[in-house]
# Entry
Amino acid sequence: MIVGIDLGTTNSLIGAIDAGFPILIADREGERLTPSVVHYPAGGDAVVGKKALRYRGISPEATIASVKRLMGVRGENCKENLPYRLDKTPGAPVRVQIEDKLLLPEEVSAEVLKKLKADAELALGTSVDRAVITVPAYFNNAQREATKRAGELAGLTVERILSEPTAAALAYGLDRLGEQAKVAVYDLGGGTFDISILELNHGVFEVLATHGDTHLGGDDLDRVVVKYLCEKLEIQDASPQVIEQLRYAAEKAKCELSAKASTEILLPFLEGTKSAELTLSREELDTLTAPILNPTRQHCLRVLHDAGLTPDAINEVILVGGSTRMPAVQQLVHDVFGKPPNMTQHPDEAVALGATIQAGILDGSLQNITLLDVTPLSLGIETFGGLMNVIIPRNMTIPAKAGEMFTNAVAGQSGMQISILQGEREMAKDNWKLGELMIPFAPLPK
Amino acid sequence: MPKHIVRAGKVFQHNKFLQMSDPFKTLGVERRCYFTEEELKEAYHAQAKALHPDAVHGDTAEFVHLNTAYRKLLDPALRLRTLIDLEYPGQNGDTKSLPSRIDLFQTTARTLEEAKQWITKLKEVSSEIVRTSLLAECEEIISEIDSAQAAVEHWKRGLTKQLKELDVSRDKKEAISLSAVATDFAYADRWLKNLREQKFQLSAS
# Structure
């Protein structure tokens, strides 16, 4: 039995194939969504999920949320501003500091996975030790490896790391296996954004192109609203607890504004005896969030360009991820693709269903589906002058093999150092280094 | 210890990474010089269903082989070169020769160079006002790219027609004429790719 897991920035889910159909598994309390939050009480076991969420307001420094944004990130590259303490030693992975303990992001994620695994074992009545875990399509190798380690720490063999928009497309296409269509998946979650274009052809799902931003999501929208609330309420140097209350209120207001034109924000006893009350309208929210949402338009155009398609060649644009509930996002997608988006997929559950379908493909219980996925980032090596020479370009179907001929740059060179890189930047140093190898040359005859 | 390496060029044939085999056979199609993208895709998807490593009887090495074959046949220039290698071994001639349309070569190169300067210029400006005025002037180069692109596309349509004709008159085709068309296709596709990329970058900024 292989399970499918959506390890999200905000929420996580687990599913399994039951009698040939992917189903999502609820926990003891009947909830399918587990908040990806871990609370570390002083001297005690980690608390995960809904219970941990309640500690966010009380002890934000010991309650870890949105840890996905730290996965596989090195100290010097970390720009996150989170209510808990981070150890950003350059050259080393970012770590979360709880009192005097340092934890890797994957160790925190493993706690969420352990809970999901236990829920699934209880519901299925068997032990669960193999899983497919989803990641944003635009995650690089380090971020994928960190996710894999999180699975291993939770006692799971990770059979496949699957891209989230691809997973959502599998969920969309499961009952359309006889059809032919080109679909775009616009996935805006709590912390990451992806856009992928796929071709569905009688059970074959071929990814044509993918693009995204691993640091763009609902969390960023909440942050600008919090900033706005601070200005409006004239709050300066707010304590973490106050910020957390504001963040909670901002998130709630953002969600409510998806259905209503305006909402009341009530914050009793925000600072001592001072309470706050104000109204936020959808127009205000849209103005605040536009600078964050607009870049997704560029990503959409880029992915269309990479796939060599015009917007009218796309049959459906599928929205997934909680943030796509926002009318502003739906309008943006409508503008770019010139058609109303398809909202038939459950924004929170489609990715987990897709992960479960991939698990079914791997264990042989779903045999009429073939997924042709691509490498989201180009792979290459460093050449003379510190340039990146692409050998496997992005969006190439994997597994793939490619070769190119290289030679020494200097006469009588004694060896060759090959740096293997991943990324889209021109200079080698701006890309992610996957590894290095050394090829010695035989000395020249005298 | 010197560690520098430089690029020596694209590997096309006879090397240990991409062993010369028959991609037509791998994909299960006839040895022809003209295919529509749909024809090739159908053949690729049909084979991929059976060979993908996730399939019950799938195999990674065979799937990689299929992928390489598909990419090769999808590109008209590579397809023709492969065909020549298979049917007229040793007659691929000079793969670095010039395209038959030197005029297009010049206009495209000039347009690409100008566009490149604009892109760098736009990247360097920091002031919003200067940028806006530059963007207004950009219209001109974008329309130049458009007309260059239209000219190359027109040329490519002619080449495709030529390819279809060669496909029909199978017996009369010679390595020399196939090789010339292959060279032209390689140029046309590279120019179109670069023109589209630069237009995208200009209109994105």
